[in-house]
Each structure stands twice: as structure tokens, then as C-alpha cells.
Write a structure and sequence with these properties.
The chain is an alpha+beta fold. It is built from 2 helices and 2 strands, in the order H-H-E-E. The longest helix has 24 residues. It is elongated and about 40 Å long.
């Protein structure tokens, strides 16, 4: 086994389960907002635009669930 293969990671397992569940719920909520389009009310004080794009677990530095809004 190579040293790289033996390296431990913090991802997954019981530690990640709660975060992944929350991420899935947030992504699902934004997906419903995207499908609703202009009829979506948004969240007062957070956003008021239609959702254009949702991504999860990308290679970006902030990868959990970035959301792009229509401005």
C-alpha cells in the first residue's frame, strides 16, 4: 500500500453524515425555489432573486452548496 493510499481523510463516515444530510436538504429547498422561478418568494434579508444554478461538492474552495441567483 502506498503512503498516499494510507492517508486518512475527514470526509465521510459518521462525522460527515449530518452535514451531508443538511446539504441535501438545503440543495432540495433551493431546487424547489429554482423550479418555482419568479413565483418564489425568496428569503427576506437573504435573497430575493430567482435561483439560476445549484452545485454541490464541487472543486471550488467553497463547495458545499453554492447557489447562483438571477440578478
Amino acid at each position: 500500500m502506498s503512503a498516499k493510499a494510507a492517508t486518512r481523510t475527514d470526509a465521510g463516515g459518521s462525522a460527515g453524515t449530518g452535514g451531508f444530510d443538511y446539504q441535501a436538504r438545503v440543495a432540495a429547498w433551493f431546487a424547489v425555489q429554482a423550479l418555482a422561478g419568479a413565483t418564489s418568494a425568496g428569503v427576506r434579508g437573504l435573497f430575493g432573486s430567482a435561483v439560476q444554478e445549484i452545485s454541490c461538492e464541487t472543486k471550488a474552495p467553497i463547495d458545499d452548496c453554492p447557489v447562483r441567483l438571477v440578478l
